[in-house]
Amino acid sequence: MIVDQLSASASYETLHPLFPRAFAYLRDFDPATPDGKYELQGQDLVAIVQRYRTAPSAEKMWEAHQVYGDIQVVYEGLEYCGHADRRTLVVTKPYVAEKDVEKYAAPEAPATLLTLGRGNFAVFHPQDGHQPGVQVDAPAEILKVVIKFRLQP
Questions:
Q1: What CATH code is carried by the domain that includes residue 89?
Q2: Residue 55, Cβ neighbours under 10 Å: how many?
Q3: Residue 24 burial by CB count (10 A; 0-12/13-18/19+): exposed, middle or buried?
Q4: Comparing C-alpha atoms, which of 123, 12, 117, 41 is closest to residue 75?
Q5: Phi-psi category of 74—alpha, beta or left, where left has phi over 0 and alpha has psi -120 to 50?
Q6: In this structure, what are the phi and psi dihedrals at residue 59, rounded to the nearest 5 degrees?
Q7: Virtual CA dihedral for 104, 64, 143, 12, nearest 10 degrees?
Q8: 0.90 exceeded by the pTM?
Q9: Judging by beta carbons within 10 Å of its beta carbon (0-12, 13-18, 19+), is residue 43 exposed, middle or buried?
């Protein structure tokens, strides 16, 4: 997992061949962009623009991916995102290849709780179980972009 300010994203562009294009999109993102999926480089690099309302932790599922990593950026609102080593989580819904997702129960051991808001980003890899969309104090409206980058383009 990586967490940093979007203004520092150029420092991470050498970590993956798709990161320069992904971070350029995120830095130039127009908040007026409608919700939906946008291919930035075919299926290897896809932006998902989404607006939703955060909810209590008990209502949000934990997940991890195998084929794609995530870069998550919140442009409006503030949310918590849980993080735990995927190997410590208990599977509740087995991996579905078509959706590249496996779902988990909340961990028994303490997990990291990230605060995602305007100006920062988080990168999740297959070992990173994560629980996005958790409310901070009360439910809040969120505008988020999730970049799906193929781990081996």
A1: 2.60.120.370
A2: 14
A3: middle
A4: 117
A5: beta
A6: -95, -5
A7: 150
A8: yes
A9: exposed
85: domain range? 2-150
29-64 residue pLDDT tens: 999 999 999 999 999 999 999 999 999 999 999 999
125 close to 69: Cβ distance less than 8 angstroms: yes
Q: What angle is formed at CA 29 by the lines to CA 31 and CA 144, rounded to 5 degrees?
A: 60
DSSP 8-state code for residue 7: G
What per-residue confidence (pLDDT) applies to 110? 67
As given in the structure block, the two tokens for residue 148 are: 């799906």
Tokens for 130, please give them.
Answer: 């994560």
Q: What is the three-class DSSP state of 86?
A: helix
Q: Which two tokens stand for residue 71?
A: 């870069």
Instruction: For the chain, give the percent of residues with pLDDT over 90.
Output: 96
- Local structure of residue 108 (DSSP, 8 states): S
Residue 110 CA to residue 33 CA, distance in Å, equals 36
The total of structural domains in the chain comes to 1
CB neighbours (10 Å) of residue 5? 10
The span from the CA of 106 to the CA of 102, in Å, is 13
